[in-house]
Amino acid sequence: MPRVKKSRKIGMIGIPKSNNSSDGYRKKSTITQPTKVKKTKGKPAGSRHSIATSDKAIVSEQKKDPRVGSTKKIELSPNKPKVIQPKVKRYATPAKELAALEADERLAMLLDKYDNDEALSKDDVQYLESKMARHKILCDLLGITDEDDNDAKNTPDLPSEDDPLKTFESININDFK
């Protein structure tokens, strides 16, 4: 058994009693509040790398809001294309709008393709239908009718398509021999 050196420390002998006991062995609170504010002498210690106090005020003003960055919403799904609203031109009169529609080169090209039974894309078909619907509305507003309809009504030589008997009677049999 090793030898134990004598110690001059005076400690409690045995097991200390619990804090609940009323024998006076309770620990005093270790937190003490200073009664007097110490007077500082000189400037506080620091280094040349520390931020100056005036800079601290500017930095604290800038970072009041903990959220940093823009509040603009960001589209998260890459599959959705951005939809750009087309700018709608405003015309002073329906006559000017009708003139602009008739001068539209894209509409003329699409009408030619449509007449030649060429395939049109989905966007082209939608564009063609919307412009033709607007053209019809403008013609109704201005009281303009199609010339082809007027020619068919004014010619009494041709039989009407509604009456099949007149069509049958007007057929010349010698044309089919």
What does this structure look like?
This protein is an all-alpha fold and 177 residues long. The chain has helices at residues 53-62, 94-102, 105-115, 122-142, 147-154, 164-170. α2 (94-102) runs antiparallel to α4 (122-142). The longest helix is centred in the last third of the chain and has 21 residues, at 122-142. The protein is elongated. The mean pLDDT is 75.
Task: Break the fold down into its secondary structure elements and pairings.
Layout: H1 53-62, H2 94-102, H3 105-115, H4 122-142, H5 147-154, H6 164-170
Helix pairs in contact: 2-4
Comma- or semicolon-separated keywords:
6 helices, mainly alpha, 177 residues, elongated, 37% helix
Output the structural class.
mainly alpha
Number of helices: 6
Question: Could you give the count of β-strands?
Answer: 0
Q: Give the fraction of residues assigned to helices.
A: 25-40%
The termini sit apart by: 141 Å
Give the overall silhouette. Answer: elongated
Mean pLDDT equals 75
For the CA atoms, what is the radius of gyration? 49 Å
- What is the H-and-E element order? HHHHHH
List low-pLDDT spans: none
Bin the strand percentage: under 5%
Largest sheet, if any?
none
